Write a sequence for this structure.
């Protein structure tokens, strides 16, 4: 169900869509500091490769079905990239050029991810722009055509240091090339509830905007191009991309360091992105402090969508909010390596981080026992004015990214 999005206009849903794409991208920033801190750069590199190679092929195919565009050519590959949390609009400023069905190029006029790692030194730049991108870019292309290859013309480390565009890549489909096999991480993730869930469009049929992307590739595509009901579907798919990436991250960590560490780092990841995203959403939708503002933000927070996968309900009554997690598909993954499963734990600070990012005077406490039929419940109240709640360290680490304060040019 998607009632929370219905009151928003097409233009407002497009704003939310860009925020969702950026939030999905920053999930990686919320998790990787904990991997680096515990196990170092090489471990982060290896986890990131499996993380993105697991999730990207799954959600690339989902978005093709959602928007009804078929094909196995370069324009189809580029269409998929336009809806990928790995390429959030403007923050990762992709520029596309199609030569013909089997040849094209893209460049990044500006790369927010590079801006994040460049101050950390050349080792981090090489890890991201070479070690991670080589296999993960090909995995993304191969989801549309296993004989497609992405190859760099130039890429960081930048020489000279202010070189623009930040990188440039060719995309070629070679019918004689050996097909790239489906990544093992994607094969495993394909069995997840998050991979197979069916999502529905919004109810609004205002008659304006496109309901699919079956037409020609548009290199300057904006989300405002789509109809209200299609944007509601896209928001749910963008949120689901985040859940797929998070599960892929935790599975990659568990493979190397055990389930207990994966669950801990998954909780840290969720807490960090929950707080940062709440703060950005409050600004994007004009939600001020107070219970009303908190309720508005939680209602559209991508960590709590799509409702079919993570069933979070926010009830506003008198001087409190009750936030409830109800039984849902995200609790049926067969393990605790999903955000809904982590939310159900009493030691998960994600709801608190999401709430206090909107109003620092808010106070969040678990309801014990939870409401009837609920997995977990939290009570939110507004305390007396004074010292605001401390920003969790997980949120502070996520805010290291330049995406934390990124301003979109289009609104």
């Amino acid at each position: 169900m998607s009632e929370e999005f219905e009151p928003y206009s097409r233009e407002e849903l497009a704003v939310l869509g860009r925020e969702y794409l950026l939030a999905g991208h920053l999930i990686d920033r919320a998790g990787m500091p904990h991997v680096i801190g515990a196990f170092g750069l090489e471990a982060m590199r290896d986890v990131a490769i499996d993380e993105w190679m697991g999730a990207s092929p799954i959600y690339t195919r989902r978005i093709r079905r959602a928007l009804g565009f078929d094909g196995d050519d370069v324009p189809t590959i580029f269409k998929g990239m336009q809806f990928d949390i790995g390429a959030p609009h403007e923050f990762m400023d992709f520029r596309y050029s199609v030569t013909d069905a089997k040849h094209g190029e893209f460049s990044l006029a500006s790369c927010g991810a590079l801006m994040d790692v460049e101050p950390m030194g050349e080792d981090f730049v090489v890890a991201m722009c070479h070690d991670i991108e080589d296999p993960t870019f090909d995995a993304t292309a191969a989801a549309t055509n296993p004989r497609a290859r992405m190859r760099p013309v130039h890429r960081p480390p930048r020489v000279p240091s202010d070189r623009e565009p930040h990188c440039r890549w060719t995309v070629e489909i070679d019918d004689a090339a050996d097909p790239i096999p489906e990544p093992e991480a994607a094969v495993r993730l394909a069995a997840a509830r998050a991979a197979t869930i069916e999502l529905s469009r919004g109810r609004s049929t205002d008659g304006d905007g496109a309901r699919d992307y079956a037409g020609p590739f548009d290199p300057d595509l904006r989300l405002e191009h789509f109809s209200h009901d299609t944007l509601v579907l896209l928001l749910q798919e963008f949120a689901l991309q985040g859940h797929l990436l998070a599960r892929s991250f935790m599975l990659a960590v568990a493979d190397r360091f055990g389930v207990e560490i994966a669950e801990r780092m998954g909780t840290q990841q969720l807490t960090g992105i929950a707080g940062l995203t709440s703060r950005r959403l409050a600004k994007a939708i004009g939600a001020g402090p107070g219970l009303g503002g908190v309720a508005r933000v939680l209602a559209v927070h991508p960590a709590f969508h799509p409702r079919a996968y993570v069933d979070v309900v926010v009830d506003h009554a008198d001087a409190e909010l009750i936030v409830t997690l109800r039984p849902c598909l995200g609790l049926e993954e067969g393990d605790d390596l999903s955000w809904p499963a982590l939310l159900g734990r009493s030691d998960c600070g994600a709801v608190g981080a999401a709430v206090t990012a909107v109003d620092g005077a808010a106070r969040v406490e678990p309801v014990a026992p939870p409401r009837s039929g609920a997995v977990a419940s939290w009570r939110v109240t507004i305390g007396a004015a004074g010292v605001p709640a401390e920003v969790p360290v997980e949120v502070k680490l996520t805010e290291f990214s330049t995406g934390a304060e990124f301003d979109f040019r289009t609104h």
Observations:
- The mean pLDDT is 95.
- The CA atoms of residues 109 and 165 lie 4 Å apart.
- Residues 10-39 form the longest helix (30 residues).
- The chain has two domains: 9-239, 257-403.
